[in-house]
Design a protein that fits this description.
The chain is α+β, with helices and mostly antiparallel strands. The protein has one domain. The protein has 3 helices and 10 strands; from the N terminus they run βααβββββββββα. It has helices at 17-27, 32-40, 142-145, and strands spanning 3-12, 43-51, 62-63, 74-75, 77-82, 89-92, 109-116, 125-127, 130-132, 137-138. The strands form 3 sheets. The chain has a 6-stranded mixed beta sheet with strand order 6-5-7-2-1-10, with no helix packed on it. Helix 1 (17-27) crosses helix 2 (32-40). The longest helix is centred in the N-terminal third of the chain and has 11 residues, at 17-27. The chain starts with a strand and ends in a 9-residue tail after the last helix.
């Protein structure tokens, strides 16, 4: 495979009451401190990909954790694809079980943004194009707010 991937930014999930309530509802938890800790560990990671076709594989995007075996590492979640400048959505799946492949053929440069739980800026993110160093989290930029909708996993 030929291509590169580099992180544009990592953005914190705003801990709105709607987000907190969605986690409460999904988990059935009543421990607000536990839910807040979980929400604070989530980052939206935005990556610039340069490739020669449909070679970038989202199934390869994980953040290794030395304390866990490989199958338990955190993986990209609810990804969506953007233009190379990050201003417009190209493709998004609203169902994690959606079997349709992304069609990025003909694109040599694009961005992908995805949620990552337990984000650790000290640990790289692994992709099909190699490891990427992680930045500290920043506030979610206004240009991503309309696209970045978080839904907690089951």
């Amino acid at each position: 495979m030929s291509g590169t991937a580099s992180i544009v930014g990592a953005y914190r999930l705003p801990p709105t009451e709607a987000v907190i309530q969605s986690v409460f509802d999904r988990w059935g938890s009543t421990d607000r401190a536990e839910v807040l800790d979980f929400v604070r560990s989530i980052a939206l990671v935005e990556v610039l990909v340069r490739t020669e076709g449909n070679e970038f594989d989202m199934m390869d995007v994980v953040q290794p954790n030395a304390e866990l075996r490989e199958g338990l590492w955190q993986a990209a979640y609810d990804e969506f694809f953007l233009t190379a400048d990050g201003s417009r959505v190209l493709d998004v799946k609203t169902d994690v079980l959606d079997p349709r492949p992304y069609d990025l053929s003909g694109l040599s440069e694009f961005r992908v943004a995805f949620w990552l739980h337990d984000y650790d800026p000290a640990s790289p993110i692994r992709t099909s194009f190699g490891d990427m160093e992680c930045p500290s989290v920043e506030e979610l930029p206004p240009r991503l707010r309309e696209f970045a909708h978080y839904s907690p996993p089951d």
